[in-house]
Amino acid sequence: MGSSEDGVYQPILQNNEATLSPQSSEKQNESSNKLEYILSDPTLPVLKRFRLATWIELKLIFLLAAPAVAVYMVNYCMSMSTQIFSGHLGNLELAAASLGNTGIQVFAYGLMLGMGSAVETLCGQAYGAHKYEMLGVYMQRSTILLTITGVFICFIYIFSKPILILLGESPRIASAAALFVFGLIPQLFAYAVNMPIQKFLQSQSIVAPSAYISAATLVLHLLLSWLVVYKIGLGLLGASLVLSLSWWIIVVAQFVYILKSERCKYTWAGFSLKAFSGLPEFFKLSAGSAVMLCLENWYFQILVLLAGLVDNPELALDSLSICMTVQGWVFMISIAFQAAASVRVSNELGAGHPKAAAFSVVTVTWISIVISVIAGIVVLALRDVISYGFTDGEIVANAVSDLCPLLALTLALNGVQPVLSGVAVGCGWQTFVAYVNVGCYYVIGVPLGSLLGFYFKLGAKGIWSGMIGGTVIQTMILLWITFRTDWNKEVEDAMKRLDKWDDDKRKPLLKK
Question: pTM for this one?
């Protein structure tokens, strides 16, 4: 956009700037205001309006999504590399690490991520409304609640072996998986601290520092994993302990950044006793968020657990875990766009920009779809060689190749569904979407998958096919709801929500 066009919108930017923004976000706020003005300007031709708005929105989205992809990808690579190190110890170790990582650890991750999305909604909308001082309070409240939750989840980790056996898993695999899970207990509490910190930073469009921290930690993680697993010989337990240590390094580094960075000086005012007030009400909001995202994160993990009940469970677990690992890797791209959608929508609603919020939804959804479809095509092209990065077994490679068409379809769906979930988080629709997820995933998807997999003897392919059906229905419902959204009403709802959660109903900390 040329300088002459920029000059046209300076008056409206000055009039709309009700409060002083942190210096690091002045350009972002300016672009946001400009986007709403362009979309609301009836004097501009439609095509020009679309061109200008698209250019602004693309810059805002990629400012968020590009480093977020790096953060999620690197963090996922740590878990994936741990699984690879374990897999090269043997097929039993691969199955155990897969079951522990995908069946138990992801349970905790899904719960923590879900509860953390409450602070994502509040921080994003508060930041858009310039109520900067509340972001640090929200982050501390969420950390307290997630840490308490972690204490209760810890019992699942401790008793993982009898739980897995009760669910019908092989005692041999369950025993090895339990050993792996014991080493992940410290990681559980790292999640409890990291999720609120991550949402706190993302809501301010501060993502690049987390990417640098995660990348440096990954290098250290690979070195320590090689040393502990192969040279010291601690095996599965050593692999999971190193993974826990790596997550705590990320947590500490990010918090040090918050303390030292000028970009957070208005949103982090230090530890506050206000973090302990209103915890029951905050828990209710977090619980609704947890149900929504947990049901999504656990859905395809049930596929792995069910696979342990079919004939030849070790082969089924090995092949499915490889596919789920690849799916999870690509999903990191989708979840980065989910984060971008959540931040963009919540910021725009908090700022009172309904048209910009709606335009952000459309733009980020199309970008995510294109990338996910390309990923699906790549997977189909490499279907015969993907498994050799995890294990040397030819039988497993053939099984993975047979499942790749379903994997490619799942990747394509991931271009839409996570972004719509991000929109739901940005708007605060978590409770409603939780009901949709229950119906589509657990009333339709899981029973249909079980029917195809066990009754019709289609095995892992049948289970996966049925569960994809549930995802398709859920995606269609969310598309319809999003399409019919009244964004002016969403702005009003956002303002009411901020008034409710601003304890003192104080004016913004920073005034013009």
Answer: 0.79
